[in-house]
């Protein structure tokens, strides 16, 4: 294992709830409707635009282009407002220690998040200098579950995807890691059954667990 590719929302920090709150507020204000809970799961790891498409499908609504653009902009404003309260206290359990240990062992780390707010969030929680590289989602042509983001993340580290472990909390993200040819670690419930290795909390993540998973992943391929 030479590199670790981190998802952000749900792995480094729990901003998934902030995304859902921002969408919920927007839909209530604009349409007077309540967002179904399922939207939180369905929009995990999915771009802002695709998230709105999922929401419109769930609510059986359709919008013209300008209104669509207006809503994605407003959602982002609501979301950014909520990010102002973020501090290093919002780093999920075990992640700070894991990153420290990876650095000590000379293992490179990349951020592979669909969020355009990734650098701002890392700044707020004090981890911006810990990452060797951050993928710019604005430069990608396809979102998760397409493997592109994880392929680009490993390339930016100067590594082959097979030498990397990817950590994700979304179904789309696990599919993307698997298709990229990296070893996938899922954090969550059995919805993530496609992950090569699954844990239920970030607390369980350690360099030993990642290294052992990657060893098994390589042996399985022999
Ligand atoms: P933004 P991840 C994803 O981040 C979120 O899970 C998803 O809910 C969000 O829509 C997407 O980022 C885009 O975020 O609106 O901030 O650009 O899980 O890939 O780290
Ligand atoms: Mg995520």
What does this structure look like?
The chain has 222 residues and is α/β, with parallel strands linked by helices. The chain is 46% helix and 10% strand. The protein has 9 helices and 6 strands; from the N terminus they run E-H-H-H-H-H-E-H-E-H-E-H-E-E-H. It has a 6-stranded parallel beta sheet with strand order 3-2-1-4-5-6, with helices on both faces. Helix 1 crosses helix 4 (65-83). The chain is globular and about 55 Å long. The mean pLDDT is 96. Bound molecules: 1,6-di-O-phosphono-beta-D-glucopyranose (B16) and magnesium ion (MG). Residues 7-10, 16, 19, 43-48, 51, 76, 113-117, 170 line the site of 1,6-di-O-phosphono-beta-D-glucopyranose.
Overview in brief:
With 222 residues, the protein is of the alpha/beta class. Helix content is 46%, strand content 10%.
Keywords:
alpha/beta, 6-stranded parallel β-sheet, globular, 222 residues, binds magnesium ion, binds 1,6-di-O-phosphono-beta-D-glucopyranose
Secondary structure: elements and pairs:
Blueprint: E1 3-6, H1 16-31, H2 38-42, H3 48-59, H4 65-83, H5 95-104, E2 108-111, H6 118-124, E3 133-134, H7 148-156, E4 164-168, H8 171-180, E5 183-187, E6 197-199, H9 207-221
Parallel strand pairs: 1-2, 1-4, 2-3, 4-5, 5-6
Helix pairs in contact: 1-4
Bound molecules: 1,6-di-O-phosphono-beta-D-glucopyranose and magnesium ion.
């Amino acid at each position: 294992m030479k590199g670790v590719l981190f998802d952000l929302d749900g792995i480094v920090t729990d901003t998934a709830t902030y995304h859902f709150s921002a969408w919920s507020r927007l839909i209530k204000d604009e349409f007077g409707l309540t967002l179904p809970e399922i939207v939180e799961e369905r929009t995990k790891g999915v771009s802002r635009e695709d998230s709105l498409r999922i929401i419109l499908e769930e609510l059986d609504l359709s919008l013209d282009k300008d209104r669509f653009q207006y809503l994605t902009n407003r959602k982002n404003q609501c979301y950014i407002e909520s990010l102002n309260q973020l501090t290093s206290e919002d780093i999920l359990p075990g992640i700070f220690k894991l990153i420290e240990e990876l650095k000590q062992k000379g293992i490179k780390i990349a951020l592979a998040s669909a969020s355009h707010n990734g650098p701002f969030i890392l700044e707020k929680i004090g981890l911006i200098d810990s990452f060797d590289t951050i993928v710019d989602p604005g430069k990608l042509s396809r979102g998760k579950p397409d493997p592109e983001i994880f392929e680009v993340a490993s390339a930016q580290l100067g590594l082959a995807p097979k030498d990397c472990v990817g950590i994700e909390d979304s179904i789309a993200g696990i599919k993307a890691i698997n298709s990229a040819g990296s070893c996938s670690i899922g954090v969550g419930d059995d919805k993530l059954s496609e992950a090569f290795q699954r844990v239920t909390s970030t607390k369980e993540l350690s360099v030993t667990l990642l290294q052992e998973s990657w060893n098994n992943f390589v042996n399985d391929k022999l």
